[in-house]
Amino acid sequence: MTSSHRMPVAESPEVKGEWASVEPVIAAVIASILRRSKRDADVRDGVQETFRRAIEGGGRVLPNSSQTAWLIGIARHVAVDMLRAQKRHLRSIDDDAASISFEPTTSEPNAFDRLDTAERTRMIQRALEQLPEVQRRALIAFHVDGLRYEAIARECGVSMGTVATWIARGRKFIAETLSTEEGL
Amino acid sequence: MIATDDWAFFDRHLTDAAITAIADGALLRADAIDHIAECQRCATRLVASADLSIDTQVAFAEAPALAHEHARSLSPETPWALAFLGLCAAALVPVVSGLLNPASTLRIIRLVSRIGIVGIKQMAAHLDAPSQLSSLLLVFSTLALAIVGWRIASIASASNPGEVQ
Fold first, then answer.
1. Tell me, what's the pLDDT at B84?
2. SS3 (DSSP) at A54
3. From residue A106, how far is each of A43, B107, B124 by CA, in Å?
4. Which of residues 6-35 of B touch A (CB under 8 A)?
5. Would you identify the CATH topology of the domain A112-182?
6. Is it the case that residue A41 has pLDDT exceeding 60?
7. B75 reaches A (C-beta below 8 A)
8. Is residue A69 within 8 Å of residue A76, measured between CB atoms?
9. In chain B, whose CA is at the least distance from the CA of A75?
10. ipTM summary value
């Protein structure tokens, strides 16, 4: 898919440094969406394309945001693009084959996407106010203070699994609150 | 990064906590990542979790009031609050002594109330400053209030020696 970009991307400082540890996760996401092995050539191309797009869009990363989450989002788009390309290719070979659905469910807009910025902020503020204290503090420590799970766990004197649970439940509650308020 | 982990899997799928930790780059265990590659359900959940992480981050970035509120909540307010309460108690001493002296009671209460109102207004105006600075202002204002009140009570007692109990 992007063989011409493979070497420069692989040699970039981002890919060699901080992103290297995330590469298996990116490969896993693309492999799952494409329904291929992680070692498949298309999957490897997808990983390189993800990093290429990430490098090009590096300025858009928010402070304190999860680089992994951002890369996973890009990987999803890369995989969807690859699926669409395959679909077009199949159509050119056999119209019957085109009836196979390659669209992943993850391409659907979520509750956040359907709201304007101001309304979304107000809803999240209301949802945060309803959260249990530990979940709210964990979310704020991660998203506002930019602390990693390990640091939050150390500060709160709990395991990282507990921190992950607090953050997971906090975000889930916020998403559910938005869905309920929007009647989705 | 997370070493141990019965919390990562449940019923042959990744837990919500594990999915969230992977999306945030906090869990990079090989068996969890291998599972993502093989399980479309968990991969879909991971992508959704990554979206949610980014969306929550965007919401926080667009709501500076949340960060501001947190900055206040993380300040070491307990020791300052205790100091404030102690100084408030000190400020009450001349008021109480004034109450025991009927001739100067009204005057002292009026003075202390006026000073207190001015002090509170000033402190409220500084609540947007960094939390520690606000706390310091609060403590020193209260200390000054206590000293002034004490002096007023002393002067009142000296001017009415016969009424001191």
1. 63
2. helix
3. 18, 73, 48
4. 7-8, 16-28, 30, 33-34
5. Arc Repressor Mutant, subunit A (1.10.10)
6. yes
7. no
8. no
9. B47
10. 0.75
